[in-house]
C-alpha cells in the first residue's frame, strides 16, 4: 500500500463501529462479502473487510480501480444495486461481474463533507439476492454518511495529536537550548564579575571604582538570572532541581546571612527574624537559602513598603517550616491559583523585576526535598509564604541523593 493508503487504513482501523456496520450489512442483505474501500483513479484498496465465503481479499488488498464497479461510482457518485448480474440488462455483459464472479452487488459512495469522493461501502455474493426496492439501499447510504463523519473526526484527532507532538518536540528543544545557553553563559559571567571585583578593590579613582562596582552588581544580577533559567530548564525537562542533601548544623546562620544581605541592599525596609533551633536538619543548605532569598525578594517587591517583613524558621512536629510574611494588598484568588507557575507575577503596581521564576523555583526546591510550598493571603492578615519540609523524607533523601 502507498503511504496515503496506509494512513487511510489506520484511520478506518480506529473507528470501532465499522466491523458492526459490515456485520449488519451482511446479515441484512445476505451478501457474504462486505468491505469499506478507498477508491482512487488508479487503485481500489480494502480498508475493512468481512468475508464469510472466501472471496479472497483481505485488509490492504488492492485491485486496479478500472476493473471494479466502484470506479464507476467514483466517477458518477451514484449507488449501484444489482440483484442478479447475469440477468441484469445493464450488467449482464459487463466484464466486472464475470471477472470477480458475483451475481448480487451493492455499493454506495462515501463522500466527505466538502463533496469530495473518499471511497465506497460495498457488498457482493456469488448468489443472486433481492436488493432493489428494499430498505437496504437507504440503510447503506446512511451508513456511508455516518462513516464520512467518523473518518473526518478521526482525521481531525490525528492532526491535533500530530500538532501537539510537534509542539512538545519544539518545546523540548527550546528548553534544552535555554539550558545549554544558560550553562555556557556562566563562565564569561564569572570572568566579568571576578574582573570587576578585582578592579573595584584596586582602582583609586572614585569614578572608575563606581563604574567597576556597577559592572560587578550587574554581573551578579545576570548570574542570578542565568541560575534561575538553568533551574527552570531542569524543572521543565523532568530532571528536577538537583540537590546536595547534607547535615546542616549551621542552617540558622546561613538563613540569617541571607536575610542580612538583603537588609543591607534595602536599608529602608524592616526585616525581622525569628529563627528557632534547627539542629538535626538534613537538606541542601544552598537551596533552602535560595528559597528564602526568593521569598524575601518577593516580599520586598510586592509587600507594603512601610510594613515589616517577618521571617520565621522552626521545626515543629517533625516538619521544618520556613515562612516569610509581609503586609499589603491581598493576592487575588485568580492570581493565587497561578502563583507558583513560571513567568507569573503577583498583582502589584511596582515595576516587575526578574523573570518571574522565583516562586516557581522555590516550589521545585520544595518538591525535590519531598515538601511543598503554601501561600495564604488576606487583607486582615497580610501574605504568608511557607516552605514545609518533612524531616523524615529529607533524611531518607540524604541517603539516595547524589551531589550535583
Q: Can you give a write-up of this model?
A:
With 404 residues, the chain is of the alpha+beta class. The chain folds into 3 domains: 3-159, Beta-Lactamase (2-Layer Sandwich); 163-236, Helix Hairpins, CATH 1.10.287; 246-400, 2-Layer Sandwich (Heat Shock Protein 90). The chain has helices at 3-13, 18-29, 69-76, 95-100, 136-202, 206-236, 251-265, 285-302, 333-336, 358-368, 391-400, and strands spanning 33-39, 43-51, 62-64, 80-82, 104-111, 117-125, 246-247, 270-275, 282-283, 308-316, 319-326, 372-378, 382-390. The protein is elongated, with a radius of gyration of 36 Å. The two termini are 52 Å apart. Residues 347-351 and 400-404 have low confidence and may be disordered. This is histidine kinase. One of its GO terms (molecular function) is phosphorelay sensor kinase activity. Its EC number is 2.7.13.3. Residues 180-393 form the Histidine kinase domain.
Biggest beta sheet attributes: 6 strands, antiparallel
- Mean of the pLDDT scores? 86
Gyration radius from CA atoms, angstroms: 36 Å
Contiguous runs where pLDDT drops below 50 for at least 5 residues: 347-351, 400-404
Examine the secondary-structure arrangement and name the CATH architecture of the largest domain. 2-Layer Sandwich
* Helical segment count: 11
N-to-C CA distance = 52 Å
Give the oligomer, counting copies of the same chain as homo and different chains as hetero.
single chain
**Helix amount:** 40-55%
CATH C-level name of the largest domain = Alpha Beta
* CATH evolutionary superfamily of the largest domain: GAF domain
How much of the sequence lies in strands comes to 15-25%
GO molecular function, one term: phosphorelay sensor kinase activity
Protein name: histidine kinase
Enzyme class: transferase
Pfam families: GAF (PF01590), HATPase_c (PF02518), HisKA (PF00512)
Amino acid at each position: 500500500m502507498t503511504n496515503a493508503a496506509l494512513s487511510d487504513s489506520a484511520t478506518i482501523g480506529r473507528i470501532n463501529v465499522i466491523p458492526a456496520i459490515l456485520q449488519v450489512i451482511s446479515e441484512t442483505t445476505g451478501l457474504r462479502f462486505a468491505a469499506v474501500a478507498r477508491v482512487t483513479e488508479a487503485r481500489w484498496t480494502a480498508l475493512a473487510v468481512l468475508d464469510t465465503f472466501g472471496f479472497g481479499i483481505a485488509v490492504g488488498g488492492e485491485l486496479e480501480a478500472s476493473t471494479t464497479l466502484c470506479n464507476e461510482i467514483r466517477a458518477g457518485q451514484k449507488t449501484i444495486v444489482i440483484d442478479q448480474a447475469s440477468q441484469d440488462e445493464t450488467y449482464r455483459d459487463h466484464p466486472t461481474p464475470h471477472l470477480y464472479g458475483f451475481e448480487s452487488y451493492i455499493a454506495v459512495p462515501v463522500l466527505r463533507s466538502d463533496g469530495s469522493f473518499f471511497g465506497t461501502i460495498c457488498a457482493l455474493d456469488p448468489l443472486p439476492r433481492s436488493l432493489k426496492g428494499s430498505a437496504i439501499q437507504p440503510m447503506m447510504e446512511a451508513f456511508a454518511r455516518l462513516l464520512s463523519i467518523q473518518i473526518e473526526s478521526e482525521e481531525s484527532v490525528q492532526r491535533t495529536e500530530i500538532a501537539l507532538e510537534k509542539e512538545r518536540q519544539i518545546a523540548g528543544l527550546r528548553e534544552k537550548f535555554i539550558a545549554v545557553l544558560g550553562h555556557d553563559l556562566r563562565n564569561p559571567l564569572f570572568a566579568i564579575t571576578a574582573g570587576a571585583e578585582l578592579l573595584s578593590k584596586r582602582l583609586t579613582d572614585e569614578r572608575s571604582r563606581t563604574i567597576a562596582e556597577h559592572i560587578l552588581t550587574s554581573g551578579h544580577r545576570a548570574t542570578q538570572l542565568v541560575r534561575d533559567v538553568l533551574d527552570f530548564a531542569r524543572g521543565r525537562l523532568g530532571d528536577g532541581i538537583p540537590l546536595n542533601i547534607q547535615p546542616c548544623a549551621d542552617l540558622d546562620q546561613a538563613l540569617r546571612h541571607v536575610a542580612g544581605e538583603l537588609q543591607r541592599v534595602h536599608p529602608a525596609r524592616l526585616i525581622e527574624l525569628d529563627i528557632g533551633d534547627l539542629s538535626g536538619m538534613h537538606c541542601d543548605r544552598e537551596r533552602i537559602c535560595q528559597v528564602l532569598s526568593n521569598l524575601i525578594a518577593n516580599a520586598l517587591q510586592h509587600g507594603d513598603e512601610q510594613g515589616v517583613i517577618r521571617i520565621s524558621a522552626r521545626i515543629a512536629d517533625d516538619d521544618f517550616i520556613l515562612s516569610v510574611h509581609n503586609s499589603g494588598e491581598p493576592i487575588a484568588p485568580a492570581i493565587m491559583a497561578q502563583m507558583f507557575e513560571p513567568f507569573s507575577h503577583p498583582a502589584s503596581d511596582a515595576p516587575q523585576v526578574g523573570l518571574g521564576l522565583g516562586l516557581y523555583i522555590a516550589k521545585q526546591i520544595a518538591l525535590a526535598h519531598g515538601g511543598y510550598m503554601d501561600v495564604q493571603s488576606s487583607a486582615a492578615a497580610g501574605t504568608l509564604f511557607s516552605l514545609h519540609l518533612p524531616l523524615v523524607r529529607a533524611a531518607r533523601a540524604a541517603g539516595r541523593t547524589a551531589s550535583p
